[in-house]
Design a protein that fits this description.
The chain has a domain of 71 residues: Ribosomal Protein L15, Chain: K, domain 2. It is built from six helices and five strands. The strands form two sheets. It has a three-stranded parallel β-sheet with strand order 2-4-5. A two-stranded parallel ribbon has the order 1-3. Strand 4, helix 5 and strand 5 form a beta-alpha-beta unit. The chain is elongated.
């Protein structure tokens, strides 16, 4: 025999929306938010810690001083000038592995930071370069009879920016200004 408490549910209730009138089931006066205070009126910011500013998390973070405080903490790529590529034979490929084999750069640093070829010095050998290069370096490599293969960078998709949220009060003010 089927028992009432074991029957499957046939209805689904929607979530009660606070402060949307009496018909929503959770309307009237304080709508479950308690009386007064910041939490009753709006959201509390993530960085808010009350009035304890001396012990706050933001005050405990180290303050960077000096002239390099706005510089990026990312490591810059290792620089290899065109004059060092004369160690290669005609028609050879220049990439990370060949640079490490020839002893021009250290393996661990090259993998961490990457390598960029700059245009200081002269090049007498025709090479195919498969690394990021400066404009001056490209000119010198092409002049020597070589070619530069472009290295594709990873493309990160950007999120679409949402328009800023406006409150009901702000929209009303904007309408009043437009009507004047």
């Amino acid at each position: 025999m089927a028992k009432l408490n074991q029957l499957p549910k046939t209805t689904k209730r929607k979530r009660k929306r606070l402060g949307r009138g009496y018909g929503s089931g959770k309307g009237g006066h304080t709508v479950g938010r308690g009386a007064k205070g910041l939490k009753a009126r709006g959201k509390v910011s993530l960085t808010f810690e009350g009035t304890k500013t001396k012990k706050s998390f933001l005050k405990k973070l180290p303050l960077q001083r000096g002239k390099g405080k706005f510089k990026s903490l990312k490591p810059k790529p290792l620089v290899v000038n065109v004059k060092y590529l004369n160690l290669y034979k005609k028609g050879e490929k220049v990439n990370l592995t060949t640079l490490v084999k020839k002893g021009i750069v250290a393996a661990d640093e090259a993998k961490k930071q990457g390598v960029k070829i700059l245009g200081d010095g002269d090049l007498q050998v025709a090479l195919t370069v498969e690394l990021p290069t400066s404009k001056g370096a490209v000119k010198k490599i092409v002049k020597a009879g070589g070619k530069v293969v472009e290295v594709k960078k990873k493309v990160v998709a950007k999120k679409k920016e949402k328009p800023p949220k406006t409150t009901k009060r702000k929209r009303k003010r904007q309408k009043r200004k437009e009507n004047r």
